Structure to design on (249 residues):
């Protein structure tokens, strides 16, 4: 391991125990004070450390946020799986679970329903942001800057006659999704499939994933899926609550 990286990691461990002065960090690393200061300044700039009014250094909010996000990511599939399985058992439709992964949204779970036709979705694959219901459910509930960053990467490739191919049209769809609380895919990637999707929230009240109930149009068209939205939303809310989310009053 690089000596600089090793020292930076040691600083983070050291100041995580309790706030430390520059002198304490210098003595702990057994380096020149200018070296310790340079490392601390870099950690502060990157959000991994912060300096109190009295001059002591402590863990930064950036590191706390990363740790919190990682815990949520690890928990989401584990918490959600049994609830999604119950949905499949009750309704017989395929259920997907997805989450934001950098600048992509990926499937992290998929439970097949009893339909005779296999869908193109696979666990680990990135979804098409302008077509998938789970993508719209997540995008619609992201902060503006994150959503706009992701939207810039969309190619708006047309797959079917109902595919959204214009940024303005997608923005309209996301606004509607926010207002009504769920998203839809009306055969926009595979024209014989449709779905409804709902956001899942974490302990910070931020969207951390999306779940969708997907069916062949010949088996359950959108109007039929919509009739069960109350039950589907209850499942999404249960998963969110188990992740620490508190519903607004």
């Amino acid at each position: 391991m690089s000596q600089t990286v090793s020292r930076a990691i040691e600083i983070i461990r050291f100041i995580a125990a309790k706030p430390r002065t520059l002198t304490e960090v210098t003595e702990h690393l057994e380096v020149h004070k200018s070296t310790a200061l340079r490392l601390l300044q870099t950690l502060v700039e990157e959000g991994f450390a912060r300096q109190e009014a009295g001059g002591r250094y402590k863990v930064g909010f950036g590191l706390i946020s990363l740790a919190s996000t990682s815990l949520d990511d690890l928990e989401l599939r584990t918490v959600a799986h049994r609830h999604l399985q119950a949905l499949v058992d009750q309704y017989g439709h395929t259920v997907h679970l997805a989450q934001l992964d950098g600048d992509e949204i990926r499937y992290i779970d998929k439970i097949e329903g009893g339909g005779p036709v296999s869908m193109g979705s696979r666990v680990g694959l990135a979804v098409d942001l302008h077509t998938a219901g789970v993508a719209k459910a997540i995008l619609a509930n992201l902060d503006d800057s994150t959503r706009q960053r992701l939207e810039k990467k969309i190619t708006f490739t047309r797959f079917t006659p109902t595919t959204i191919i214009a940024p303005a049209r997608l923005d309209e769809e996301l606004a509607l999704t926010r207002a009504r609380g769920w998203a839809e895919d009306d055969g926009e990637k595979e024209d014989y499939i449709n779905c409804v999707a709902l956001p899942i929230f974490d302990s910070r009240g931020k969207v951390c994933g999306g779940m969708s109930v997907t069916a062949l149009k010949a088996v359950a068209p959108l109007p039929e899926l919509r009739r069960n939205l109350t039950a589907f939303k209850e499942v999404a809310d249960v998963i969110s609550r188990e992740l620490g989310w508190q519903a607004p009053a």
